[in-house]
Each structure stands twice: as structure tokens, then as C-alpha cells.
Design goal:
6-stranded parallel β-sheet; Dihydrodipicolinate Reductase, domain 2; 9-stranded mixed β-sheet; alpha/beta; binds alpha-L-sorbopyranose
């Protein structure tokens, strides 16, 4: 049994992300040596029956029906925010000001203004050793972490092209009911912030370059949808056709944009991005391809244990090599199974907890910081601004 000091977690929200985070808090100390021992101390949700059931199912010691109680409790060290974006700023700032570490789901906020206030609060709190991180979990997929390692090692040379797509199809059915993800006042944006944000963060992180300008198009294909009670999760496949009351969709269904990167010392790369939840047949195709002067990398989350690599130093007919990112020397992999057994979606969340708890234990700023997430928020805002102005080029 570990002698590490406990890190007592209070989580707000218990839907899809709450379940993914709970799994990570439970599992991380069982596969990684951590400087602090996470404890699932309390979960908060407005519905007393629902949060009690979630606590029993997900393994939380106690429940609250008001997140503010988590902030007040002196037996909680870290607040984990797994709620829609309209609540991130209020909860995170209150937690940081109360001296509690924060893990906040992506995107950081629903506006640049909120993200700026959150970043200021985070930087102020960090001076007192109170840490914060934004949950861009795909950085912790071993294959994408290996891609970043290859770029840092110079194996691609200078990056010229970035190609990022995030394709899902769970909204393809026009009768799929309304969810909070389709209500701008809750989610801030649609495919752009929900999944496009992952592509923006991953592209900037793997390349080490920030986006400095964009030209964009946003489209809403289905302007209203059947209301389905209190459905708050992903938009299941509604059988609510006919005369069910319908709600207005106030966000984008799809986003496409071109981008210029800052080059981080060399000529900046150019990029093309796409995010949609209408790509029939694509279930969670978070894809990234980089083309550099010495080679190329390609990743597709639907084959998440593989990184494809083309090395220009090899004979041209060598083609792309499929690297199975399942070796002990690959990022995170050595703590799991013997070579070749592969990992899944949930492991990114576990690795996120590992890196967060380790940084807190060592008194270091976890990554991505709120400032990193603010940069993503600025790109999201630039995309929306460009799309609202005839796709005119918009500086970030
Ligand atoms: C829905 O599009 C979603 O759940 C995103 O909100 C998550 O961030 C992503 O990891 C999976 O898809």
C-alpha cells in the first residue's frame, strides 16, 4: 500500500467525461508510481438521485448536489470539471481562488474573455503552488506522443504541411435529438469547439508551432431537432420523428479552415482543418498528418495504436512504415501490457491523470496549461470571426 500523501478529488459532472475521468482517477495509481495517491472523495451533480447512482457506479466516496460545496470542503484538494463549457469559468476560478488544483475539460471556456480570466486566475494560483491543466486528452495517446517525439528529434525536418481532421457521424440522423452540445449558450460552439479544439491543440503541440491566422467556413446542416427531455449526453439516435417539439440548433455542424503556423523559428507550416459530426461511417476519426522536409507522419485515432511514418532518407519505394506503438520504450506503454497488446481511448485519460498528479507532486506547471488552452480558444474565436466575415483571413 502506498505511503504517498492523498490527493483528494472532487469531480463536477458525471456524464461521458465524468465516467472517463473516474476511470482514470481509479486506474492511474494502479499502473503508475505517483507522488500523490488520488482519492475519489466526492462527485457533484444537481440531481440527487442521479449523482448518488453515479457515485456508486463510478466509485466516489461521497456526493454533493452543489459544486460550491466541493470548493468549501477542506477534505478536497483538486476540482475536476467535467461539465459543459458554460460553467467552466465560474467553477475553475472559484476553485483556484480557494487554493484547489483544477483539471478542466476542453475547450477551456465558451469565449476568449472567459479563458483569459481563467488563465489569469491559474497564473496567480500557480504562484502559491496551486496547479491547473486543461483536458486535451489526445496528447496522451502514445502514438501522438511518439509523433511529437519524432518532430522534436528532427526526424521530419522542417514541417511544411499540417492536415487535421476530426470526423464523427453521431449527428447524421436529422432526428437525433437536441443535446447541450447543440446549444451555443451551453457548448460555446458545435463541432468546432467540441472536436475541432482537439485537432487544434494536437496540431500545435505535435508541431511545436502556434496558429497565427485562419480562413474559415462554418455550416449548420440541420437547423432544429426534436427535444428529448433531459438528454445531456451525445445525441443518441432519436426515434422522436413526427410532431415532437423541436429546438433550434445554435451551433455549427461542421467547420473547415485553413491556417498558418508561426514556425517556431523556421518558416511556418500551412494547415487545413476539418471537424464534423456528419461524416457517415467515421466514428471517431481524429486524424493528423504532417509533411516535413525529411519525412511525414500520419495518425488516425480509429487505428490508435499505429503511427505511420515516411522517412525520406529511406529508398522512395520504402513507402510509409506502420509503427505499432506498443513497445515499452514508447510513451506510457511500458506501464501497461507486454509488447503488441495495444491501448484504448480510456488510457489517454489515465495518462492525463498521471502527468497531472506527477506535475503537482513535483511542483511543476502541468501541460496543457490554461494559457495553452487560451491559445486554442483564440483560434476557435478567429475561426468563428472569419466564417462570419466571408471567410476573410483572421489573425489569431
Ligand atoms: C463528442 O464529440 C466527444 O465526446 C468529444 O466531446 C470528446 O472530447 C471526444 O474525446 C470524443 O467525442
Amino acid at each position: 500500500m502506498t505511503t504517498a500523501k492523498p490527493l483528494r478529488v472532487g469531480m463536477v459532472g458525471y456524464a461521458f467525461m465524468g465516467a472517463a475521468h473516474s476511470q482514470a482517477w481509479r486506474t492511474a495509481p494502479r499502473f503508475f508510481d505517483l507522488p500523490l495517491q488520488p482519492r475519489l472523495t466526492a462527485v457533484a451533480g444537481r440531481n440527487a438521485e442521479g449523482v448518488r447512482a453515479a457515485a456508486d457506479k463510478l466509485g466516489w466516496e461521497s456526493v454533493e448536489t452543489d459544486w460550491r460545496r466541493l470548493i468549501e470542503r477542506d477534505d478536497i484538494d483538486l476540482i475536476d470539471i467535467c461539465t459543459p463549457g458554460d460553467t467552466h469559468a465560474e467553477i475553475a476560478i472559484a476553485a483556484l481562488e480557494a487554493g484547489k488544483h483544477v483539471l478542466c475539460e476542453k475547450p477551456l471556456a465558451n469565449s476568449v474573455e472567459e479563458a483569459e480570466r481563467m488563465t489569469l486566475a491559474a497564473e496567480t494560483a500557480a504562484k502559491q503552488g496551486v496547479m491547473s491543466m486543461c483536458g486535451f486528452s489526445y496528447r496522451r495517446t502514445p502514438a501522438l506522443a511518439l509523433a511529437r517525439r519524432f518532430v522534436e528529434q528532427g526526424r521530419l525536418g522542417e514541417i511544411r504541411h499540417v492536415r487535421a481532421q476530426y470526423l464523427q457521424d453521431w449527428l447524421s440522423d436529422a432526428n437525433a435529438p437536441m443535446t447541450w452540445r447543440l446549444d451555443k449558450s451551453k457548448s460555446g460552439s458545435g463541432s468546432l469547439g467540441d472536436i475541432g479544439a482537439h485537432s487544434i491543440d494536437a496540431a500545435q503541440w505535435v508541431t511545436g508551432q502556434n496558429i497565427t491566422g485562419v480562413s474559415a467556413l462554418l455550416e449548420t446542416f440541420v437547423p432544429e431537432r426534436p427535444l428529448a427531455g433531459d438528454l445531456v449526453g451525445l445525441g443518441g439516435h432519436g426515434d422522436l420523428s413526427g410532431d415532437a417539439p423541436r429546438g433550434k440548433v445554435t451551433v455549427d455542424d461542421a467547420a473547415v479552415f485553413s491556417a498558418k503556423f508561426d514556425g517556431a523559428g523556421s518558416a511556418g507550416a500551412i494547415g487545413v482543418f476539418e471537424a464534423t459530426r456528419y461524416a457517415l461511417g467515421r466514428k471517431n476519426a481524429m486524424r493528423l498528418e504532417l509533411n516535413g522536409t525529411k519525412g511525414s507522419l500520419a495518425f488516425d485515432f480509429e487505428d490508435m495504436n499505429v503511427l505511420s511514418f515516411y522517412d525520406a532518407a529511406e529508398s522512395p519505394d520504402a513507402g510509409f512504415r506502420k509503427i505499432f506503438v506498443t513497445e515499452p520504450e514508447h510513451p506510457y506503454v511500458g506501464n501497461w501490457w507486454p509488447t503488441g497488446h495495444g491501448l484504448g481511448y480510456e488510457h489517454g485519460f489515465t495518462h492525463q491523470v498521471v502527468d497531472l498528479v506527477t506535475a503537482i507532486g513535483e511542483g511543476r506547471q502541468p501541460e496543457p496549461s490554461f494559457a495553452d488552452a487560451l491559445q486554442v480558444q483564440r483560434v476557435l474565436a478567429a475561426v468563428e470571426s472569419s466564417a462570419g466575415n466571408s471567410s476573410q483571413w483572421q489573425k489569431v
